Amino acid sequence: MCLRSNAVVPVIVSNAITNPNRSSDDRESFSCSMLLLFKPWRHPSDLLGDSSCWTEAFDNYDFPHSLAQIISNFTVEMECKDARNHFSVDVADGRAAPIFFDTADGAVDDIANLHDALEDDDDLQ
């Protein structure tokens, strides 16, 4: 057995990084992805260790502060994407109106008004 001469970074194929707050299955998938990316390992069995599931292994592993912050950022990104997707569905179903620009007078809801509002904004000149 020999050590690698080049660094190797695992690549997660597909949309494997999910919002861990949606369901227990998504939490399991998120935990697996974060362990693959941020826990040192040589064999897949190193990732799970003595744990019975990915979530348990993730919760038991002590990530350094800098990595914990990156993982937290992944969570925030997933929550933002979910909110965007829910809003898009609401707009498509007519339960919400698209908002392009918010002013003190109210929301501008069409492109022409948005263009005018942007031209009138002194901060953008």
| Strand content range | under 5%
| Largest sheet, spatial ordering of strands | 1-2
Helix count equals 5
Radius of gyration based on Cα positions: 22 Å
End-to-end gap: 64 Å
Number of strands: 2
Structural class: mainly alpha
Helical proportion, percent range: 40-55%
In short:
With 125 residues, the chain is mainly alpha-helical.
Overall description:
This protein is mostly helical and 125 residues long. It is built from five helices and two strands. It has helices spanning 24-38, 44-48, 54-60, 65-92, 111-120, and strands spanning 101-103, 106-108. It has a two-stranded antiparallel sheet with strand order 1-2. Strand 1 and strand 2 form a beta hairpin. Helix 1 (24-38) packs across helix 3. The longest helix is centred in the middle third of the chain and has 28 residues, at 65-92. The protein is elongated and about 65 Å long. It starts with 23 loop residues before the first helix and ends in a 5-residue tail after the last helix.
Helix-strand layout with pairing:
Layout: H1 24-38, H2 44-48, H3 54-60, H4 65-92, E1 101-103, E2 106-108, H5 111-120
Helix pairs in contact: 1-3
Question: Keywords for this structure?
Answer:
about 120 residues; single chain; mainly alpha
